[in-house]
Amino acid sequence: MAARTELRPVVRLRSTAGTGYTYVTRKNRRNDPDRLTLLKYDPVARAHVAFREER
Fold first, then answer.
1. How sure is the predictor about 2, in pLDDT bands with cuts at 50, 70 and 90?
2. Quick check: 13 and 36 in contact, CB under 8 A?
3. Is the pLDDT of residue 30 over 80?
């Protein structure tokens, strides 16, 4: 089981709009070694904004 969690860790994506809203997802460390940034919907801001991985 340890190999599964090492390659695809659970990451938390926090809104860059400053609302404090977060998404939780998994990422592949081999394909995305840097911090992940995705455009997703922020229901507090009621708009699509960039969500950045926090550590």
1. low
2. yes
3. yes
At residue 12, φ and ψ (nearest 5 deg) are -110, 125
pLDDT number for residue 55: 77
Phi (first) and psi of residue 44, to 5 degrees:
-75, -45
HSE value, Cβ hemisphere, 13 Å, CA-based, for 1:
0
Read off the tokens for 28: 């592949």
Q: Six-digit token pair at 47?
A: 């708009």
Cα 50 from Cα 55, distance rounded (Å): 16
| Token code pair at residue 19 | 């609302």
